[in-house]
Design brief:
106 residues, Alpha-Beta Plaits, four-stranded antiparallel sheet, alpha+beta, single chain
C-alpha cells in the first residue's frame, strides 16, 4: 500500500479543538477517517515548532489520500502537506528504468 508523510499545522480553531479533545481524541478521529478508506496509521506524533502533527499513513491509492486531504483542509482546522513515500525497493526499481532526457541547453 502506498505510504504518505503527513505534516500538519493547527489553526487557532484547530488548536482549541485539540486542547478540548487531547491527543487521544484526535488519534481516534484520524483513525476513523483513515480506516474508513481502507488505510492504516503507521505512526502519529504531535510536535511543536513548524509542524504540530507528523504522521505516516498507508492508503490503498493516491485518490484516497487526496480525498482525505481535501476534506480535512475544507474544515479550516489545519493546514496539511502530504508527501508520497517510496520504499527502498521502489527506488531500486526506479533506478533500473531507462529514461531518455536532454537537459536544457545540452
Amino acid at each position: 500500500m502506498p505510504k504518505f508523510l503527513i505534516q500538519a499545522t493547527y489553526t487557532p480553531e484547530g488548536t482549541k479543538g485539540l486542547l478540548k479533545e487531547g491527543g487521544s481524541g484526535r488519534r481516534a478521529a484520524v483513525e476513523q477517517v483513515v480506516s474508513g478508506l481502507g488505510g492504516k496509521i503507521d505512526a502519529m506524533y504531535f510536535a511543536f515548532g513548524e509542524d504540530d502533527l507528523v504522521m505516516i499513513v498507508d492508503f490503498p491509492d493516491a485518490v484516497s489520500m487526496a480525498a482525505v486531504s481535501l476534506t480535512v483542509k475544507a474544515t479550516g482546522a489545519l493546514h496539511t502537506r502530504a508527501t508520497p513515500l517510496l520504499s527502498l525497493e521502489e527506488i531500486d526499481d526506479a533506478v533500473r528504468r531507462q529514461v531518455t532526457f536532454r537537459a536544457p541547453g545540452a
